[in-house]
Structure formats: structure tokens, C-alpha cells
Amino acid sequence: MQNVTADDVAAAAGVSRWTVNRAFKKDASISPRTRTKVLEAAERLNYVPDLHAAALASTRSNLVALLIDDFANPHKLVMLERLTRALRSRGWDTLLVNTLDPDDAAPALMNASQRRVDATILIGLQFDDEVLEAAHKARRFKKLIIFARSSENPETISICVDDVAATREIARYVLNRGYRQPLYLAGPRTTSAHLLRKETFAGIWMEERGFQPESHAVDAYDPQLSAEVVYAALAQRAAADRPDILVCENDALALGAIDTIRHRLGLDVPGDIAVIGFDDVPQASSHNYRLTTYRQPLTEMAEYLVDVLESAETTNLDRAFLGRLVVRESA
């Protein structure tokens, strides 16, 4: 059977080809009666519009490239679910690119630019300032969005949680609960898009208690790597020398820490060492962890990202959101 064209639908519906094109555009000017007539004719003929051809005739493709790494972090799956749900509900499609290998970042950005995407969304750690600057100078992206991390690069749009306000709430909770010897468990540092959680917590603790809290870094947001770092830091310590709470930069680190404290060190959470995380991933509420953590407003952040995509503005679009502390039994 030959492919059905817009001209075939136009003839069947008794309208012009341009009316057929408008009927398949969400915001096009067309009467409900005419739209219904066109869609009914299209259904009878099994017509499917050519989205690629439509994009070529438009200034917008309604396609975004989503570049992501760090798949060991369970929060990334939650981000993907919320983002793709918000995008699809408002007529946007997604090109997903795995950039797990650090050497993939720059080629992935250039490859995405050749796909005629309306924007590129970065979720991860592998995008240093040199890569972002090269992408911008090439003038290949209408909008370059950093999601769930703050960026000081002036050529990007940053949509994230307010790390400073969130960490202040966490620090106040730790102080009010009477913990005196925290250990901060941080993730990898990045120059292009960073978190302000470790620095904020350390500053508050110095101001309130007069000393810098102990801290250790994990090379990736991976529960297994976190478990090894925590074991190496605590295995040889006497009870009096152990921290009374681990403040973790995100839940992936917190989950690994709890596993080590309980199953390798034979200690109780929170009786011997309390643990607090950040993100509120689905595992956090399970009976295995019952993790006290800070919940990011991902749905609200994702909806705002789509607002940014649909906005004609290109400047002053950065936004930081407030979440809330979710208190459970781990701290």
C-alpha cells in the first residue's frame, strides 16, 4: 500500500493541505469542527504526519537532547521519569544520550547539535567549562540547560534546588537534634556545574561549633563506592572516635553508608551513627533504610524546564527551587 500523504487527507476532508498541517499542530489557528473533520479523515486513511518534515518547515523541532551520566545514582532515574513525563505531556520528544565515559561529553554535545534539537539538557558531572564554552562558541544550541545542579557559566541556564537554603535546613536539624561530631560525605567535584552543600554545611558548623567537620569524598554517586569509603574511614576507630552522624551529599551515598554501618561494622543506625541524605529517592522510604533526607521538588523543576523551552526569552532564566526536609528514623 502506498504511503498516505497530507494531500490525500486534504482531499478526503475537503480542505487544503495547509489546513491538514494546522490540524496536527497543538497551538495552530483552526476551528474545532475543521480539526475534527481532518483528524477523522486521517484516521480512516491511516495517515501519520511526518514529524521530521514538519520540523524542517518550522523554526522549532520540539525535540530536546538529554545527556546523562552517573547511572549508579538512583536519583537520576527519578529525574528521567519526571522530565520525560513533563516533556511528553506538552508535546516534546527526547533524544537520550548516555555520556557515562568522560571522553563522551564533548562529542555527545556536538552530535546532539547536528540533530536539530531545540535545546540540550545536561544531567551529570562530565561537562567542564571548556566543553560548555566550545559548544556555545559553535553557536549550535538555542538553549543549553543544566538540570539539578547550579552553574556559573553565563551561557547556560541552571534549574536546580537551592543548595544553600536546603543545607541550612539540614544543618539546623542536625544541631537541634544534638549531634556533635558530624562527618560529611561528599561526592565528586566538578568545575562547570557544582553543588554548594559541603561548603555550606562546613561554614555553618564552623560558625556554630567552632571547628570544621570531618569530610571524605566519593569519586561517584555510587552506593557501592560510598560503602567502601565509609568502611575505610571508620573500620579501625574506637567508639569514642566515631562520628555520631554522617551528613551525605545525596541519597546514593547515604544508602551505601547505611549498608556499611549495619552489615560490615555491625553498628546500629541511628543508635551508634545516624545518617542523613539528600534527594528522597524511592529507596529512602523503604523499611531497609527509613532515611531522613531532603526532597527536591522535581516535578515543579521539570515543569519549569518546559516553560523555559517554550519561552522566547534566552536570558535571566536561571531558577533555584525550595524543597523540604523529610524526617524518618535514620537521624
Kindly state the number of beta strands: 14
Which regions are unreliable across 5 or more consecutive residues at pLDDT < 50? none
What's the story with the biggest beta sheet? 6 strands, parallel
Order of helices and strands: HHHHEHEHEHEEEHEEHEHEHEEHEE
What separation lies between the terminal Cα atoms?
A: 66 Å
Derived from helix and strand composition plus strand pairing, the structural class reads: alpha/beta
Give an overview in words.
- 40% of the residues lie in helices and 17% in strands.
- The protein contains twelve helices and 14 strands.
- The strands form four sheets. A six-stranded parallel β-sheet has the order 2-1-3-4-6-13, sandwiched between helices. A four-stranded parallel β-sheet has the order 9-7-10-11, with helices on both faces.
- Strand 3, helix 7 (129-137) and strand 4 form a beta-alpha-beta unit.
- Helix 5 packs across helix 12 (298-310).
- 38% of the residues are buried.
Index terms:
elongated, 17% strand, four-stranded parallel β-sheet, alpha/beta, six-stranded parallel β-sheet
Brief characterization of the structure:
This protein is of the alpha/beta class and 331 residues long.
List the helices and strands and how they pair.
Layout: H1 6-13, H2 17-23, H3 32-44, H4 51-56, E1 63-68, H5 74-89, E2 93-98, H6 105-113, E3 119-123, H7 129-137, E4 144-147, E5 150-151, E6 157-161, H8 163-176, E7 182-186, E8 193-194, H9 197-209, E9 214-217, H10 223-234, E10 245-248, H11 251-263, E11 274-276, E12 293-295, H12 298-310, E13 319-321, E14 324-326
Parallel strand pairs: 1-2, 1-3, 3-4, 4-6, 6-13, 7-9, 7-10, 10-11
Antiparallel strand pairs: 5-8, 12-14
Helix pairs in contact: 1-2, 1-3, 2-3, 5-12, 8-9, 10-11
